[in-house]
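Problem 12. The chain below contains 169 residues. Write out its predicted structure in token notation.
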Amino acid sequence: GKTALAVWAMQESYKRKDFDFFISVSAKDRELTSESIRSIPQTLSTYEELLNQILSVLGFSEAIEEPVSSREELTRGLLSDTKSLLLIDNLETVEDERIIEFLERLPKPVKAIVTSRTNRVQRAAFPIQIGPLSVTEATGYWDMVCRSKGRDSLLKATPAEKVRIVSSA
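Solution.
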């Protein structure tokens, strides 16, 4: 839910051309499969990886070989001259506090969307708490997905069956 909403917001901003650059990184370290929860490789776990990703998107991948302090200075300088949107997904799995510090001091006009189960970014954040769907919202979502996937037979479930289905997820 959190990731889907963040990606949707980023895509809408892209369509409206709200930003010059869009940078997306994920600290997701596991995924839910039908059999279990399994580990997956993260694309973001260190501050260096964040700097490298930003530099790559901004067209300065050759700077990745520079010392961290030089990369940070270059990254901040480049970002301060751009309208960029940074998406960091699953921040709660990141242990490198320098990422939090970086987010707290983003140069203007850069904006960030951060998904996390915990509220670690304090000064630069305007948290939006998103609770679970209501039963009405969940069954409405069920119907929308069934229609979009061409599963019309599933739309014939009774209201009670739909509630049982969405409540079991």
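Discussion. Residues 146 and 152 are 6 Å apart (CA to CA). Students who got a different answer should revisit the alignment rule from Section 12.3.
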